[in-house]
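Obj.: predict assembly geometry.
Materials: sequence records (below).
Method: joint structure prediction, all chains together.
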Amino acid sequence: KAGVTQTPRYLIKTRGQQVTLSCSPISGHRSVSWYQQTPGQGLQFLFEYFSETQRNKGNFPGRFSGRQFSNSRSEMNVSTLELGDSALYLCASSLRTDGETQYFGPGTRLLVL
Amino acid sequence: GEDVEQSLFLSVREGDSSVINCTYTDSSSTYLYWYKQEPGAGLQLLTYIFSNMDMKQDQRLTVLLNKKDKHLSLRIADTQTGDSAIYFCAETSYNQGGKLIFGQGTELSVKP
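Observations (raw structure tokens):
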């Protein structure tokens, strides 16, 4: 069974631009969560989607948004990029949302110049 | 709020056992996880334990859970240079849904 895939793997943007990252979960998994990893703040939860509905949201500004499609694929969008948005963005999928084991993708490394 | 703490560094000799420790504050934690991250990579799930268990063994990995002290440990037997990585402890509970709370990560260095 294929694992979680994320595209693109690397991205360079400039301040003020927007970016969209994509995540395809493991086949059959309906829950997708997104995390931001930075050296200073570590791993922080962004949001979680289950059956196309956002079920949980972390403490990030409204510039960070996401959605999930009927095939469980998810996208996250960051508008008006700031230098501090440079990070590794990780997507995780699981069968359901009650703490069922989450499997992570390789991440998208975003650099904002 | 919920918090997970880990020591930042651990250095061991190849062939020795490594013990990575983690403490958490959420008394309603139901699942506790250990993930491994190698340079430039995502998170690899190593093992997990339910909060109603005290111990779980999986090949070279042993997880011990002390619920009273909210302390979790990961023991790696016969540590190899390929085990050098950052190890993250994480917890979640039913009322957190898909949200994992991670520790800062412990960087394990294995010297030959």
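Conclusions so far: Chain A has a mean pLDDT of 94.
To do: check interface contacts against the pulldown list.
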